[in-house]
Every structure is written in C-alpha cells, then in structure tokens.
Amino acid sequence: MTTVRVRVDRQLCMGSGTCLATAPALFDMGDDGTADPVAPLVAPSAVLDAAVSRCPTGAIQTLPG
Q1: SS3 for 7?
Q2: Distances from the Cα of 45 to the Cαs of 5, 15, 25, in angstroms?
Q3: pTM of the model
Q4: Do 13 and 31 form a contact (C-beta atoms < 8 A)?
C-alpha cells in the first residue's frame, strides 16, 4: 500500500480547525492550539487532499512515506 507522511508546520498553523472539520479521522488539535496528524503515515485520499487544499495557511504538507 502506498503511504504518505503528513506533516503540519507549527509556524504556519493558526489553529483554524479547517483540517479537523474536513478530515476528522486524520487530524486533531494539540494542546498548543495547532493541528496534529492523528497518524504520521496515511494512505493518500480525496479527504486528505481536501484538508491540504483547504488549509488557510498552507501548513499541511504531504511527503512520500
């Protein structure tokens, strides 16, 4: 199975919660108010693509797993 590594740049994340609203199974909010991937390695999906594209600051990155 192909996987990608999901990373959230904490310097860019403003904690809007858009990723959590778009992909609640993939993201959670950390204690510091920024997004955290639930699992660092996930299968690529349309839901993940939507969360990445809807992030208002571009803080979510996907890299080859």
Answers
A1: strand
A2: 12, 22, 12
A3: 0.92
A4: no
β-bridge partners, 37: 27
> Domains (ranges, CATH) in the chain?
4-64 (3.30.70.20)
User: pLDDT tens across 20-30, in order?
Assistant: 999 999 999 99
Burial class (CB in 10 A: 0-12, 13-18, 19+), 53: exposed
Tens of pLDDT, residue by residue over 23-57, are 999 999 999 999 999 999 999 999 999 999 999 99
d(CA 24, CA 65): 21
**Concatenated DSSP letters of 18-60:** HHHHH-TTTEEE-TTSSEEESSSEE---HHHHHHHHH-TT--E
